[in-house]
C-alpha cells in the first residue's frame, strides 16, 4: 500500500540556455499547452491526469555529453512516426548519430539545445499503451531503479539482467534504467525530477523517508529556497518541492 506521505512526480525539469525557445519546441512536438510557471518562467502542462509537467529552467551552462535520460516517443504507424520526425525537424530539431546504425527502426533526434530523444517504431510491445511519451529511458543502476520504485510507489514492470523499469499504477510513461555500465557523473545534470508531497503532506517527512531509502541531501549553491535538493543513489540530482496547494 502506498504511504499517505509518498511524493508524486510533479515535473521533469530541463536546464536550458533559452527556456522560451525550448518550451515552444516541445510544445509543438508533444502538442502540449505552454503556461507561465511561477518558478521556472515557462512550463508545459501534462496531457492527462497521470502525466507530469515539463519545466524549463534558465541556465548559463552548456550541454556536454549525453543526458542521463531521454524521451522515447511512440508511434501508431510508420506514417505517424515519419510525421513526428518531420514535425520535430521543422520546429528546429535535428538527426543525431549515437551509433544506432543504419538498420535501427527508431529515429534518434536532438532538440534545439542538443537534448537527445527517440521516435520509436510502431509495434513496440514494451511501450504499448503508455501514451505518446512512452518512456523516460535512462542510464542508471539496478539500485537506483529500486530506489525510485520505492520513492514514487511505482511498481517494477521490468527487472532483468540489472535493467529495471517502473510505471505508475495508473499507467502512462515508464521510467527505465539500462544497468551497467553506468556512465560516470561529470557535473550537474541538465535534466532532473521535481517531486511534490500531496497537499496534506509534509516536506521534511518526505525528505527523511527518501534519505532512509538511500537518497542524500546536497548543496549545489541553491541558497535559501523552498525546495530541498537531493541526489539519488547514482548521484543524480532531484528536488522535493513544498506540498502543492489543494
Folded structure, characterized:
By secondary structure, this protein is α+β, with helices and mostly antiparallel strands. The relative contact order is 0.18. About 20% of the residues lie in helices and about 30% in strands. An 8-stranded mixed β-sheet has the order 2-3-4-1-13-16-15-14, covered by helices on one side. The mean pLDDT is about 95. It has one domain: 2,3-Dihydroxybiphenyl 1,2-Dioxygenase, domain 1 (Roll).
List the helices and strands and how they pair.
Blueprint: E1 8-16, H1 19-30, E2 34-35, E3 42-44, E4 53-58, E5 69-73, H2 78-90, E6 94-95, E7 107-110, E8 116-119, E9 133-138, H3 142-152, E10 156-160, E11 163-167, E12 174-177, E13 191-196, H4 203-213, E14 216-217, E15 228-231, E16 237-240
Parallel strand pairs: 1-4, 5-8, 9-12, 13-16
Antiparallel strand pairs: 1-13, 2-3, 3-4, 5-9, 6-7, 7-8, 10-11, 11-12, 14-15, 15-16
InterPro entries: Glyas_Bleomycin-R_OHBP_Dase, Glyoxalase_6, VOC_core
Organism: Actinopolymorpha cephalotaxi
Domain VOC: 8-122, 129-243
Percent strand equals 25-35%
Q: Over all CA atoms, what is the radius of gyration?
A: 17 Å
Helix tally equals 4
User: What is the count of distinct domains?
Assistant: 1
Largest sheet: 8 strands, mixed
Helix amount, in percent?
A: 10-25%
Cα(first) to Cα(last) distance is 23 Å
E-strand count:
16
Q: Which fold name is given in CATH as the topology?
A: 2,3-Dihydroxybiphenyl 1,2-Dioxygenase, domain 1
Query: Judging from the principal axes of the Cα atoms, what is the shape?
Result: globular
CATH superfamily: 2,3-Dihydroxybiphenyl 1,2-Dioxygenase, domain 1
Amino acid at each position: 500500500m502506498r504511504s499517505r506521505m509518498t511524493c508524486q512526480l510533479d515535473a521533469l525539469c530541463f536546464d536550458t540556455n533559452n527556456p522560451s525557445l525550448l518550451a515552444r519546441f516541445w510544445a509543438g512536438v508533444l502538442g502540449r499547452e505552454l503556461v507561465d510557471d511561477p518558478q521556472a518562467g515557462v512550463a508545459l502542462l501534462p496531457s492527462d491526469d497521470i502525466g507530469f509537467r515539463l519545466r524549463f529552467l534558465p541556465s548559463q551552462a552548456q550541454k556536454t555529453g549525453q543526458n542521463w535520460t531521454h524521451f522515447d516517443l511512440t508511434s501508431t504507424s510508420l506514417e505517424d512516426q515519419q510525421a513526428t520526425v518531420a514535425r520535430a525537424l521543422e520546429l528546429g530539431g535535428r538527426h543525431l548519430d549515437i551509433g544506432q546504425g543504419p538498420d535501427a527502426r527508431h529515429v534518434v533526434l536532438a532538440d534545439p539545445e542538443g537534448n537527445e530523444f527517440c521516435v520509436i517504431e510502431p509495434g513496440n510491445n514494451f511501450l504499448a499503451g503508455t501514451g505518446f511519451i512512452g518512456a523516460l529511458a535512462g542510464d542508471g543502476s539496478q539500485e537506483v531503479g529500486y530506489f525510485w520504485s520505492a520513492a514514487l510507489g511505482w511498481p517494477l514492470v521490468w527487472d532483468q539482467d540489472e535493467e529495471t523499469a517502473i510505471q505508475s499504477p495508473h499507467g502512462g510513461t515508464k521510467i527505465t534504467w539500462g544497468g551497467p555500465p553506468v556512465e560516470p557523473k561529470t557535473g550537474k545534470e541538465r535534466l532532473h525530477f521535481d517531486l511534490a508531497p500531496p497537499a496534506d503532506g509534509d516536506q521534511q517527512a518526505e525528505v527523511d523517508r527518501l534519505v532512509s531509502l538511500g537518497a542524500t541531501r546536497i548543496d549545489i549553491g541553491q541558497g535559501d529556497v523552498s525546495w530541498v535538493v537531493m541526489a539519488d543513489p547514482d548521484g543524480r540530482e532531484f528536488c522535493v518541492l513544498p506540498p502543492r496547494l489543494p
